[in-house]
Amino acid sequence: MKTSIATVSISGDLREKLAAIAAAGFDGVEIFENDFLAFDGTPAEVGRMVRDHGLEITLFQPFRDFEGMPEPHRARAFDRAERKFDLMAELGTDLMLICSNVSPVSLGGIDRAAADFRELGERAASRGLRVGYEALAWGRHISDHRDAWEVVRRADHPNIGLILDSFHTLARKIDPDTIRSIPGDRIFIVQLADAPRIDMDLLYWSRHLRNMPGEGDLPVTDFMRAVAATGYDGPLSLEIFNDQFRGGSPKSISVDGRRSLIHLMDQVARAEPDIAIEVPAMPDRIVTSGVEFVEFAADEAEAEELGQLLSAMGFSLAATHRTKDVVLYRQGGINIVVNTEKEGFAHSSYLIHGASAYAIGLRVEDAAATVARARALGAETFEQRHGPGELAIPAIRGVGGGVIYFIDGKSELSRVWEIEFEPTGAAMQDAGLTRVDHVAQTMNYEEMLTWLLFYTSIFRTRKSPMVDVVDPAGLVRSQVIESDDGALRLTLNGAENRKTLAGHFIAESFGSSVQHLAFACHDIFATADRLTALGFQPLEISRNYYDDLEARFGLDPELTDRLREANILYDRDGDGEYFQMYGRNFGEGFFFEIVERRAGYRGYGAPNAQFRIAAQKRTIRPSGMPRA
Ligand SMILES: O=C(O)c1ccc(O)c(O)c1
Ligand SMILES: [Mg+2]
């Protein structure tokens, strides 16, 4: 599998782009003409720079408005092409992309276009060059890869081939299986891009909103399966026009790009077992069976405050670490670890971010296999020196530099609590909390696609459409990632400014991390009663909310009263019902949520988020600091 990426896909000048592309492990680059034109160096220098990075130029593009021109435009088009052939020879690439003509003066007709290409093929052949033809989704006469293929077929010249671009095919909802009958050796290069499904002008959509395969909603895997079935084995080249990526980090966008291609081809290879596909060997996407633990780093005072908060939610101090300043709170199947060590990664994380849930532990079938898949996808593994009697828990780096540990039942890992911890023997209390329902991570909006791809490529999860959450100070975008059975539920919240609760949280804690943890229970009213007895202080919800709720859902006034009394929010989807209550803030905006799902409710109470945020903001003093 040969990977490539167009220079337009990332930010920076050509030098920065090439460095980032090479570092991410790509084999080649498409030189986008404008990147070359903006660069102050000769074509030969650019070619050398590319090769010095261990890359090859897979394509020079785009060449516009070539085929079907009436004279005198036609002669001019051939002259222009010859000039670009000169340039290609100097750059050191043999392939040029011609995209379908958009000129109002161009003439239609498959045979006319084919004749132009045959003549160009002759000229290219005399210089050892090749030309590929791509149907732009908004081309004037050719806007469908089937028609572009017909032009290429009739041109009938070995130096003229087809270029496929997943965006143009899928944006027009053309069945990708129509690709299967094209001979693979007539396809000169395959460009890949995804995009969010939005009904809009094709050109604008393509030039501003493309994203990496897997980050959007287009069936890029089906497209690539069809391409693989042709026998095509040339470069897979990302061509991503995206406003956000143009201003993003070249390094991280390149890493995302490589990850998207490896993940895509892994999926394709699994779906098409009869086709030989060269893709790094790795385990299939990892099934998680739940959150085994969440670990906080804190200093003593914060650890004590957190301990009180957890006790007021019915947790018990169940065990202490045998050798470290680490304690375990437990309730139902929930393990909360609080780490106050003065050295090691947790402490470094504390020094940078303050008290935070810096690590989560996921239950998987095979922890080593999980790390192997993550590594194959370019994730960073995490290792820390461990003392005698401690287990080396396989782990990777996650959001905000945090850690994701993996616990399996195959090894000693399943006994980590017994091996590393000494039970306190304290009487265990219980307020009915059973498991972690979801983990919510807050980040800058620009990071969301990165982490979406990270989670969905490593774990067997799916995303649901992004929703907008209204904070009084701005929008926060929320993206759910979950496994089919709900064992793993994550929400990514992307803040666009610092005045929102989410934005304040990442500004004050110096980076993205877990902002809230939701625990599940079976009877939220019974749990609420227990918590009141334990001294838990719920987040107070506006009274107006409940009047509307009753009207909106036609609730029994008695139920509304109970919800109001306990500050419980409510939502419904079909027969499913959802109940949520929140605690007060801890630190710079971290909080706990308690939820009950009834009759298969699948959502996250998104319609309530606005009212929850408003309530949370009321607890923050004008200085911006949460009230003690
Ligand atoms: O937006 C464009 O003009 C454009 C140019 C070249 C391509 O390969 C493409 O897919 C789109
Ligand atoms: Mg293209």
Shape: elongated
Superfamily (CATH H level) name of the largest domain: Divalent-metal-dependent TIM barrel enzymes
Chemical compounds bound to the protein = 3,4-dihydroxybenzoic acid, magnesium ion
Helix share, percent: 25-40%
Give the total of beta strands. Answer: 25
CATH structural class of the largest domain: Alpha Beta
Q: State mean pLDDT (0 to 100 scale).
A: 95
Q: What class, by secondary structure content?
A: alpha/beta
Major sheet attributes: 9 strands, mixed
The CATH topology assignment of the largest domain is TIM Barrel
Radius of gyration: 28 Å
Query: Span from first to last CA?
Result: 56 Å
Per CATH, the architecture of the largest domain is Alpha-Beta Barrel
Function: Catalyzes the conversion of 3-dehydroshikimate to protocatechuate (3,4-dihydroxybenzoate), a common intermediate of quinate and shikimate degradation pathways.
Pfam family, one: Glyoxalase
Catalytic activity: 3-dehydroshikimate = 3,4-dihydroxybenzoate + H2O
Cofactor: a divalent metal cation
Defining key terms:
628 residues; alpha/beta; TIM Barrel; 2,3-Dihydroxybiphenyl 1,2-Dioxygenase, domain 1; nine-stranded mixed beta sheet; eight-stranded parallel barrel; binds 3,4-dihydroxybenzoic acid; binds magnesium ion; 4OHPhenylPyrv_dOase_N
